Every structure is written in C-alpha cells, then in structure tokens.
Amino acid sequence: MTETPSQQLPAVAFLGLGHMGGPMAANLAAAGVQVTGYDIVPEACSAAREQGIEVVETPQEAARSADVVITMFPSGKHVVDAYVGIDGAVGLLAAAPAGTTFLDCSTINISEAQEATELARAAGFTAADAPVSGGVVGATAGTLAFMVGAEPEVFERVRPLLEIMGGRVVHCGGSGMGQAAKICNNMILGVSMVAVSEAFVLAERLGLEHQAMYDVVSNASGQCWALTTNCPVPGPVPTSPANKDFEPGFAGALMAKDLNLATTALDETGAAAPMGRLAAELYNQFVADGHAGKDFSGIITTLRDGGRKSSREE
C-alpha cells in the first residue's frame, strides 16, 4: 500500500460496501481520503460507519460531492443501471458534478464495462474499469491487484487511490481491458484449483500423505498459487481456507461467476479453451450443490464425492 499525501487525493463516493468494497473504502478513509459511502444493506452501512466512512441515504447523494465515484457491484447490469438510473430514479451520471471520474471495480462482462465507460464519456465524464484480484484478505490488507482499463490520463488520475487499496496496479490498456485481464487470470486460477484438487484426491487414493505431496509439488513443476497459497487440504498451508471448513476467501459463487464471464468471452471471440469451459461447468455444479458460500478450493470435496460415486457405480 503506497503512502500518498491526503491533500493530493480526490474526494470519493464509494458505492457497494460489502465484503470487498467495505474494506477497500475503509483503507481509503484510513489514508485520509474523504469517503462518502452507500450500500443497500444496512449491516454493511453500519460496518462502514465504524471504519470512519460517512454513509448517506442514497447513491446520488454520495456522488454529488465526489471527484471520483467508485462502484463495486455484483453485475454489469447493476453498474449500467446505477449510471443511467432506473424506475424513475436519477442516475449517477446525472447526479455527479462536472469533472467526475467513474471508476468501476466490479468484475463484469467486457462489453458491459465498455458500455459503462461510453455512457460516462457521452455524459461528459471520464471512466475506467479496474477489477481486482486478492479476495477479502487482500481487500482488508490493502494488497489487492488492480487491472485497469482506461486512457493513460484517466489511469494516472485514479492510480493514487488504487495504490492505497492495492499492492499492485497494472494499466492493461483501454476500456474493458482490465476486465479482459481479470477474466483470463481467473480462468487460469479456476483450472489450476481443479487440477490441484484432482491431484490431492488421487494422492489420497494412492496413500500419499498431504504433507509429502505438498513438499514435493510446491518445489517442483506443479507449483502454483492454488497450491502454495490456497491449498485445498488442511495442514500444509495453515492460512488456507481448507483449515477453516472452507470459509472464504474467494467464494465458489464468485469463481463460477468469473468463469461464466470467461465462457461468454470465449463464445464472443471463438477462442478454444476446453479446460476453461470444463472448470466453469464444475464450479456451476459446485454452486448448484449448495456450496456457493464456501471457498472455491472446496471444489475438492465435490471431486472426492464424484470419484467415490463413480467407483461404486462401476
């Protein structure tokens, strides 16, 4: 987290104070940024107030005093609807003062990110997409990785804020390219976690202990983040969610969402990614089986059960 003099930082409206947005906004406030927040969930608003964030009654009220409007929403539809307004409500683009920059940190379809940026530009504003990687732990610690899609001058304007909330900020190109980087990264992560989990299940069947498996693979060609940071079995990595009944972390529902975004991008581009598509199927089933709130590394339990079922059926 980079220290930046507070007098150089723009005032922020932070909309979406949930598991990710709440800690991100709190880190801005702790660094001296003037943060005005809003969330539809009362508990999220209460938690934000405890972190020194001024919480207001409407998103429009938050936007009216902001230099930068940050959104952290569940879907692209939420972002676009908030920008333009629905059901007779004034949109953020109509409420914000001249010169405002719109910074969306949600993970959404590339086309939706580009639509949001174009809407902001058409209204006379600047905009950027900056999805994050690092989960709740990274949001709390201020060590998130930001992947930014924006024009160079817009990137430079929002970078000081992103450096407070994150440990790595990468300018990936123009509008939508932050989302492109995020989708590609998480397709790798989803496939990697499935592969690591399958290997541990096989090791269990062969009688190989978890620690021995970890000691070999973590120092061999199979080494990856899914193994050494988010190991899907308890013991080898004490801080991994596997040691806490798969408490997220990065929830399975979010991994399914990101892999579905990747699938949409694959369909739109015609790119071949059979492993990415299979990972999406597995995580969609993981969610359908009632594990949406479990860490995505909990996919190992599904793979164990599936393997046992197949053996019995044979």
What does this structure look like?
- The chain is an alpha/beta fold and 314 residues long.
- The protein is built from 14 helices and 9 strands.
- The strands form 2 sheets. A 6-stranded parallel sheet has the order 3-2-1-4-5-6, with helices on both faces.
- Helix 1 runs parallel beside helix 7, helix 4 packs parallel to helix 6 and helix 9 packs across helix 13.
- The longest helix has 30 residues.
- The chain is globular and about 65 Å long.
- It starts with 11 loop residues before the first strand and ends with a helix.
Key words describing this protein structure:
314 residues, alpha/beta, disordered C terminus
Radius of gyration: 21 Å
Oligomeric composition of the shown chains: single chain
Structural class: alpha/beta
Strand residue percentage: 5-15%
Widest β-sheet, arrangement of strands: 3-2-1-4-5-6
Largest sheet, strands/sense/barrel: 6 strands, parallel
Shape category: globular
List the uncertain runs: 1-7, 309-314
Question: Helical element count?
Answer: 14
* Overall mean pLDDT: 93
SSE pattern, N- to C-terminal: EHEHEHEHHEHEEHEHEHHHHHH
Number of distinct beta strands: 9
